[in-house]
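Checklist before submission:
- one chain only
- standard amino acids only
- sequence pasted in full

Submission:
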Amino acid sequence: MAEKKPKLAEIKTKPTAISAEDFINTIPDIQKQKDCFVLIDRMKKATGQEPVMWGGSIIGFGNMRYESPRTGRQVDWFLVGFSPRKANLTLYIGAGSEAHTDALKILGKHKVSGGCLHINKLADVDLNVLQGMIDSYLSRK
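Returned file contents:
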């Protein structure tokens, strides 16, 4: 019997033409704006890609086809990214993977849910450790 090919799912969150810089400049919290520009600089250097708005609130870098190991469902997504949420900065860097276990112990104040890393502000974490996590995640893609 022929092997079934995974189906590419259509998702609501897609790249847009919105400027990431314009989006960040609408954030009322000045410190969160500054943190976002630091993250843009670091992720841009790590990926060699320009920031792209995905939907109305996620800033992504690069492109990949992600396949869920559980369901086999495939979606087009970004390599790394972040979203300046009201409560915190949410980073999409595969933080829930075992590869980050040691780094998370020394990162600083944070929370992890799924593959997302949640930090209140960059001053709460060691930026060198965070950069190492971003670089490590990208090296596995």
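Reviewer check: The radius of gyration is 16 Å.
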